[in-house]
């Protein structure tokens, strides 16, 4: 378990619309913009190797992008450099955080002062979903994949633990940014699964929301 006192108060943040990182899950990223290459270089020099993933939003004033209140920090656990100087990295989710304010400084990338309070569960053991009806969920997922023309390794999905299954689908499936944020902010795995089911059902029913599975 990672204790709160082991986590820094200020972290670099990567505002990326539609991207979702969750605790104990992995997110692959392709880093090529100079400011984010600088962010990666600086993060690798720290003991925590953390980057905060957070969704941006358009400020009504038009004064640049704001940051959503809740994000998730990931530790750089894999990285490789391409011949043209780009990086492929993998972030492993450590904990969600609350953005308190942005920190001005001399870095080309954005940084934020964050609070880890209220997300202690993220830094504990694997979460479970006692009321998860896997057979019904897999049947729903099969309909969704068929409707979207998607392929997957069903054997791997069937064998995955509850948290890995729900979180991986939340990260990989294409939903609107506000829906991704709702999945991120779900307080428990059960709530995230219910949110995911609702989003899948809405997609299948064209948004009418009939016959929702809870």
From TrEMBL:
This is LON peptidase substrate-binding domain-containing protein. Pfam families: LON_substr_bdg. InterPro entries: Lon_prtase_N, Lon_prtase_N_sf, PUA-like_sf. Transmembrane segments: none annotated. Residues 11-204 form the Lon N-terminal domain.
């Amino acid at each position: 378990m990672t204790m709160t006192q082991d986590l820094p108060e200020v972290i670099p943040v990567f505002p990326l619309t539609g991207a979702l990182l969750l605790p104990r899950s992995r997110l692959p990223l392709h880093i090529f913009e100079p400011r984010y290459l600088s962010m990666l270089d600086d993060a690798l020099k720290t003991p925590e190797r953390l980057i905060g993933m957070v969704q941006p939003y358009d400020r009504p004033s038009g004064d640049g992008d704001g940051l959503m209140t809740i994000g998730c920090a990931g530790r750089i656990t894999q990285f490789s450099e391409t011949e043209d100087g780009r990086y492929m990295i993998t972030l492993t989710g450590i904990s969600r955080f609350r953005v308190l304010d942005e920190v001005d400084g001399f870095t080309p990338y954005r940084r934020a002062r964050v609070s880890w309070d209220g997300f202690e569960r993220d830094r504990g053991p694997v979460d479970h979903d006692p009321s998860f009806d896997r057979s019904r969920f897999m049947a729903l997922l099969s309909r969704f994949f068929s409707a979207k023309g998607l392929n997957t390794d069903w054997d791997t999905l069937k064998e995955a633990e509850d948290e890995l299954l729900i979180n991986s689908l939340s990260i990989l499936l294409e939903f609107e940014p506000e829906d991704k944020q709702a999945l991120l902010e779900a307080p428990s795995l059960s709530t995230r699964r219910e949110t995911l089911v609702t989003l899948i059902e809405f997609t299948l029913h064209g948004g009418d929301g009939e016959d929702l599975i809870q």
